[in-house]
Amino acid sequence: MSLWGGRFTKLSHVKFKKFNNSLKVDYRLIKDDIKSSIAWSKILIDIQILTNKEQKLIETTLNSILKKYSNNITDILESDSEDIHSWLETMLINKIGELGKKLYTGRSRNEQIATNLKLWCKRKSNVILKKIIKLQRIFLNQACLHQDTIIPGYTHLQRAQPITFAYWCLAYIEMLERDRLRVLDVMKYLNLSPLGCGAIAGTSWNIDRKKLALLMGFSDSTNNALDSVSDRDFIIDMLSAASISMMHLSRFSEDLIFYSSGEACFIELSDSITSGSSLMPQKKNPDILELIRGKCSGVYGSLHSILILLKGLPLSYNKDLQEDKQHLFQGLDIWDECLEMCGVVLNNIHIHKLRAKKLAREGYSNATELADYLAIKGVSFRDAHHVAGNIVMKAISQNKYLEELDLLTFKKYCPLVESDIYQYLTLESCLEKKDAIGGVSKRQVQNSLNLIKERLYHIDS
Ligand code: ARG
Question: Which residues form the Fumarate lyase N-terminal domain (predicted)?
Answer without folding.
Answer: 6-301
